[in-house]
Amino acid sequence: MRYIPHTNEEIQAMLKSQGKRSIDELFQSIPDSLIQNEPLKLPAAMDEMTLLHHMESLAGENHTLSRSRSCLGGGVYRHYIPSAVGDLIRRSEFLTPYTPYQPEIAQGTLQVMFEFQTMVAEMYGMEVANASLYDGSTALAEAVLMARRIGKNRKTVLIPLAIHPEYRQVVQTILQGFGDHLVETPYAANGGIDRGSLNDYLNEDLAACIIPYPNFFGIVEETRDIIEKVHAAGGLVIFCVQEPLSLGLFESPGAYGADIVCGEGQSLGLSPSFGGPFVGLFASKNEFVRQMPGRLCGMTTDSKGRRGFVLTLSTREQHIRREKATSNICTNQALCATQMTIYLSLLGKQGFKKLAELNWQKAEYAKQKLAAVPGVRLTHPESATFNEFVLTLPRPADTVLSELRKSGFDGGIPLERWYRSLHHCLLVNVTELNSKEDIDALAVELKGALQS
Amino acid sequence: MSTPGATGLILEEGLLFEQSVPGRIGFSLPAPDVPETDPKTKLSKNILRQKEAALPEISEVDSVRHFVRLSQQNYCKDAGLFPLGSCTMKYNPKTTEAAARISGFANSHPLASPEAMQGNLKLIYELQNYLAEISGMDFVTPWPAAGSHGELTGMLMIRAYHTAKGNPRKKVIIPDSAHGTNPASAAICQYDVVTLPSNKDGILTADAVKAVMDDNVAALMVTNPNTLGIFEENIQEICEIVHKKGGLVYCDGANLNALLGIVKLGEAGIDVLHFNLHKTFSTPHGGGGPGAGPVGVKKKLEPFLPTPLIIKENGTFKVERERPQSIGRVKAYFGNFGMLVRAYAYIREFGPQGLRHISEMAVLNSNYIRKGLEGAYHLPYSKPSLHECVFSDKFQKEKEIKTLDISKRLMDYGFHPFTIYFPLIVHGAMMIEPTESEPKASLDQFIEAMQKIAKECEENPELVKKAPHNTFRSRLDEVKAARELKLRWTV
Fold this sequence. Notes:
- Chain A has helices at residues 8-17, 48-60, 83-89, 92-95, 107-124, 136-151, 165-175, 224-232, 253-256, 318-321, 334-371, 397-406, 436-451, and strands at 128-129, 156-160, 182-185, 206-212, 236-241, 260-264, 280-284, 297-301, 307-311, 377-378, 388-392, 413-414, 425-429.
- By secondary structure, chain A is α/β, with parallel strands linked by helices.
- Chain A folds into 2 domains: 67-80 and 349-451, Aspartate Aminotransferase, domain 1 (Alpha-Beta Complex); 83-342, Type I PLP-dependent aspartate aminotransferase-like (Major domain) (Aspartate Aminotransferase, domain 2), CATH 3.40.640.10.
- In chain A, α5 (107-124) runs parallel beside α11 and α6 packs across α7.
- The longest helix of chain A is centred in the last third of the chain and has 38 residues, at 334-371.
- Chain A is globular.
- Chain B has 491 residues and is α/β, with parallel strands linked by helices.
- Chain B has 2 domains: 95-349, 3-Layer(aba) Sandwich (Aspartate Aminotransferase, domain 2), CATH 3.40.640.10; 361-478, Aspartate Aminotransferase, domain 1 (Alpha-Beta Complex), CATH 3.90.1150.
- In chain B, 35% of the residues lie in helices and 11% in strands.
- Chain B has helices at 39-42, 60-71, 94-100, 103-106, 118-135, 147-164, 181-188, 206-212, 235-244, 277-280, 337-373, 403-412, 440-459, 461-465, 478-484, and strands spanning 139-141, 171-175, 192-196, 217-223, 248-253, 272-275, 295-297, 309-313, 316-320, 389-392, 419-420, 429-432.
- In chain B, the strands form 3 sheets. A 7-stranded mixed sheet of chain B has the order 1-7-6-5-4-2-3, sandwiched between helices.
- Chain B starts with 38 loop residues before the first helix and ends in a 7-residue tail after the last helix.
- The interface between A and B is large, with 197 and 204 residues.
């Protein structure tokens, strides 16, 4: 076996040095009744060439369409990833260490964490960010748990129906043990938060109000009025950002007065990979830093006075506080955070803004083209969107999508999967990867699909 | 023989933000092919970003150098022995990396229609079956993103199981040697934690469990082999005691690397077990993740498995998104799928005999180190251990040298230190897990370095107390980091 170096001679020598005659003797502390005598019922071993051939054929059973002809978004975004990102992230020194428990020989990982924290804080317009959580959905659950810790006796958490439905489901799962008030608030006709639905909850029991930004319909909404009311009631405002590139164009959550901001980082340099591994982003105001979940990297000096970095405030964490920790998280998504940091270092200040503008321009063009197809209309024509929007079709969206697939287009995501009343609605995402030519061709195919 | 430690040239590297020059860019932006509408003409000023994010402005060359230089400041498994106990730092095959990067996997979208994603669904389905076979469990959910997320998922299922029987119960019993994530996960599920002491041999006894077990206990959480590397030999009897009172037994699978093909924990009576794919199945550790923490369960817990479920019907794979008794979703989409691809490829490359060989060599290596260090370091528990061994700093304390000092000195010899101060039941613990990847020669070097350090503790204690001496940075001031709290760069 190429990954296990032992020769028979070495095995014998090593056994002998321990006074053992056989490998079996090493396992004598295990009761006989538990020792397996039959080999595991698993497929036989494969050589590398056969294995990779097998993996390629398995991947080939997926029908992944050309990236320019896909309009799939819904929290997982197709963006161009520069070659340098893939090259750097494969370096053994990033790929094969673990959590930097020994900072003297892990300054690379630690400095990247510090840079990652700075970038997340900058993007979100917040004072402080952590070193990553699993993904956007679990980051939202952690944000809700944190808001409840800060709110002490306050229990109600308002979660809009127009937030990513799978994020909402994760929050429901993780909070079920608390058995308290997770209130789903409806969306208004414009796809944004229904203001009226909040009024009953603006009281001393309100722990937090979640604001999806953009929401699952792609809508970016101005919510200063809500933030003011939530704060006046003593609650916290949690922003949840599923497409962080939107923050190159739209106002930062911090500038609005958000208390906690969480979200997904995938769109900044990570491939879709069937939904993971991604990277959960998490930031807050400074005053709440001791209630934060997850790892934090801080700047310090070494015994010779040189600048260095260490994991800090670990007294919040499970390995010290056990059942009283701010979270149970240990391993997070360090490599994905590194990948995002590399991507953002290349994109930079100007690129972040320009790429966001380009995405918005492409989506605006696609909106106009697709809504001009007879029978098709924009579901939320008055609302601002980033690179994703909803179309109402004259027919159930899933039937139209099957037609489009035949002509080589992934036309979007049918919203009926999560919203039964929206069975004619299609969520369309357009990024820099969708060329004008393909957007035009999609409009033609959509027209054809609706006529057939 | 000599150890690999030596000084080398590692370059100083500033923060990205300090290298920023206005106007510089490292990205090749695509030319716009649609009308370049000015956002200001169509969007309200109220909603447009006023203050730009202060991201660095550097070239691609700057960026590449930056990350190459930073990477060189890291010690990693690909560079040498990394005996971090309980973390199973084994070699990460390059082939599994290549497999995960195949475009059909890497570019597949989780919200595409299931008909178009048959390859992914098949891979996940098969991996679930492989993990069930390896562990002796009936069903496996692959979605948790890491071990502690698996614990949370497992404990939520346990809570749902009891709730369905009419009472979620109040307590969870956890041994004093457990990982901190165990009590933290139980607490999120609103359980009170009852700490159970290990006996003088470092294991749990049936009597100790009997003494705290009542019908308000939802579960016992064990780790087997435990964090001392010792097999919990009373596990079958313990499971029976817990089951008799209607409780369930959760097993933290962090140490599964000792048992592949040797013991199926499901047969010992375990009801719920999580796997750490980044440990046992070598999806890389990545500097602290991403991991993956699938959970195996016995049939009685099947109704509570998290959604979605992958169902095979007439050779086609379907996604079942809702189930009446499910605990619900624990993560968006399909878990850390890229890690599932790596684990699948790893299992396929090894096959049944190969997997057993992993555990045999992991246990052989650990015992070789244990033998090699006995006498030089204090071994608090004499019971045989499996894939890892735990020493303490008791002998060195006479010279006022602590585990921390010994671990720092080990760096000078060119090794990553072992896990320190864990498990908590061993004062000044040094927890050593070499894994199966290490040849005898590297173990010999490690033993030699540790022996030399033991000698240094006697002859030149100051050398050890001030270590490391050869590293890029000397000891870092953690107190200052926590007191002055600088968590981000600012101008």
